[in-house]
Amino acid sequence: MKWNVDKYKHNADYVPILGQDLLNLLSPKPKEKILDIGCGNGELTKKISQFNCSVYAIDNSPQMVKAAKNNGINAQVLDAQKMNFNNKFNAVFSNAALHWMKNPNAVISNVYQALKTNGRFCAEFGAKNNIKTIVDAIYAQLQNLNLNGDNYNPWYFPDETEYRLKLEKNGFKVVEISVFERPTTLPTNLVGWLDTFATPFMQDIPTEKKSSFMQAIENTLASKLRNKNNNWVADYVRCRFLAKKV
Ligand code: BEZ
Q: Bridge partners of 77?
């Protein structure tokens, strides 16, 4: 997926802000070596480094890594499903990124290998039924064009049990894991959100038809996802966990 850094900042500035809570669970200590997976523009990575630890960041998007570097972050273009760090980090952190990686076992086993013994894996990402109202509406509009959403869906949203089992099968001890609803007020309308995050669904839609495709989705969801103040509220569901390499 090709990210547009400016669009992301405009349409998704809440992502690092809401992720700050997760830092309490990570609880970084001075001098620790921490890996941030899917660092985006590095806003949250910067917050981790303020704990006087050494943070290394990766993201699969060259555009985002460039933005993170401009933010003073030591970052590299790398897919966590393919990374090959060995016994290097005290903790691995990830906010709102793991759901973009459709091979969770590769991610978890690579994280396990990257951690030192007793190292922590702390993350939050989309869980089962995350943004279900939006996903269903995207699928319905694709269906109108005789396209099957499953062929385009870039997201992995597991339930708690499934993810716990994957962590355990890969050798982690799960310290805590929870799934919770987090209705999220968007800074823009739904078209802005779709244009930032849902472009993989539009690969086979001609450029000149993409706007009306997104507008049709927005129209069908106005009665469901707009609140009294006319703000758009997306039905986010999060999985948050802390696991330990034992
Ligand atoms: C999420 O953070 O859950 C998310 C954001 C954009 C697209 C899909 C999921």
A: 59
**Please, which residues have CB within 8 angstroms of residue 243's CB and are 6 or more apart in sequence?**
120, 121, 122, 167, 172, 173, 174, 175, 177
- Whether 236 is in the pocket of ligand 1, judged by its Cβ within 6 Å, is yes
Ligand 1 center from residue 122 Cα (angstroms): 17
Average pLDDT, the chain: 95
Ligand 1 proximity of 14 Cβ (cutoff 6 Å): no
Domain that holds residue 222: 5-245
Q: Is the CB of 172 under 6 A from ligand 1?
A: no
Compute the distance from residue 76 Cα to the ligand 1 centre, in Å. 22
Which pTM value belongs to this model? Answer: 0.94
More confident residue, 191 or 11: 191
Q: Residue 39 has which token pair?
A: 């660092």
| pLDDT confidence of residue 11 | 67
First to last CA, the chain: 35
Give the 3-state secondary structure of residue 115. Answer: strand
pLDDT digits (tens, 9 = 90+) for 104-130: 999 999 999 999 999 999 999 999 999
Q: Ligand 1, closest atom to CA 238?
A: 3
Candidates 101, 217, 236: which one to mutate for ligand 1, based on the most atoms within 8 Å of Cβ? Answer: 236
> How sure is the predictor about 208, in pLDDT bands with cuts at 50, 70 and 90?
very high
Atom 2 in ligand 1: which residue has the minimum CA distance? 96
What pLDDT does 20 receive? 81
CATH of the domain at 184: 3.40.50.150
